[in-house]
Write a structure and sequence with these properties.
Blueprint lengths: L2 H4 L2 H13 L6 H10 L10 H24 L4 E5 L6 H5 L6 E5 L1 H7 L9 E5 L15 E6 L8 H14 L2 E9 L1 H6 L29 E5 L5 H4 L4 H11 L2 H4 L2 E8 L2
Parallel strand pairs: 1-2, 1-4, 2-3, 4-5
Antiparallel strand pairs: 5-7, 6-7
Helix pairs in contact: 2-3, 2-4, 4-10
């Protein structure tokens, strides 16, 4: 795997960590894959505070996705940059067709742990390319982009959103983004540095992406109070300072975009 692909082990560890502790997120698949893979994380990438944050982020995406699926029973699901994430198990497909998408070497590794079905398919693709969408029905789409945008230049991100807008009748998209300040600071202090990534990208004004044809519909809370409350007393205090306060918001945002049918 290249260095960007290795970053998938950071959220995998986080979900396995919180699941093992019985807080925030139940994810036995992450626990099993983490035990089997044994990727040697080090430094900040193995911080318990970051692990809790990764688990919380996944839970927020899960909750949003489940709500969208309830409201759109006939939509297709795109989980872009899926890594080893077991969202397909945590949320389930119901009637929806679900596509997990990532680089070919990631999907090859993923297929050691997941099986495809009538409603679930794994696609090996670089989302910056324009051919992979042909494999997906041009219907209504619910799109999860967790931990993806920060590895795309602005033009690459704009082009991707424009292709989603052109291909699907409607789009509901949730995407996390670094701020420009965070992208600059990441050169010196970021857990992804521990797996060899030194270049990431940030975005300060989400409405700039509306030029791609999707409407910015709001910002989501990355660290809901009820999830933070699941941490123990002193853990909660430290976590709030590191990941749930004004400093964290200067670094990291969660944005929702839509294209109505």
């Amino acid at each position: 795997m290249n260095n960007v692909n290795k970053t998938l082990y950071i959220p995998l560890y986080g979900k396995a960590y919180v699941s093992h502790r019985g807080i925030i997120l139940r994810d036995p698949t992450a626990e099993a894959i983490w035990a089997a893979e044994g990727f040697p994380l080090k430094g900040k990438s193995r911080s318990k505070w970051l692990a809790c944050y990764m688990g919380m982020r996944a839970a927020v995406f899960d909750r949003w996705l489940a709500q969208q699926m309830e409201a759109q029973p006939d939509a297709v699901i795109l989980h872009m940059g899926c890594g080893m994430d077991s969202r397909i198990h945590r949320v389930g497909t119901r009637r929806h067709r679900w596509f997990d998408i990532d680089f070919p070497d990631v999907i090859a590794q993923r297929k050691l742990h997941y099986e495809e079905s009538e409603n679930y398919q794994m696609l090996a693709a670089d989302v910056r390319d324009d051919g992979w969408l042909k494999a997906i029905p041009a219907e209504n789409a619910i799109v999860v982009m967790e931990g993806v945008s920060m590895y795309l230049r602005l033009k690459e991100l704009m082009d991707l959103l424009a292709r989603l807008r052109e291909h699907f009748e409607s789009v509901s998209l949730l995407m996390d983004c670094y701020t420009e300040f965070a992208a600059k600071a990441s050169r010196y202090k970021n857990p992804v540095n521990d797996v060899g990534v030194t270049q990431v990208y940030g975005l300060d004004e989400p409405k700039i992406l509306e030029a791609a044809g999707l409407h910015f519909s709001g910002e989501q809370d990355m660290t809901p109070r009820e999830m933070v409350a699941k941490l123990s007393g002193m853990e909660r205090v430290v976590f709030k300072k590191l990941y749930a306060g004004s400093i964290a918001r200067k670094m990291y945002r969660l944005y929702e975009f839509k294209k109505d049918a």
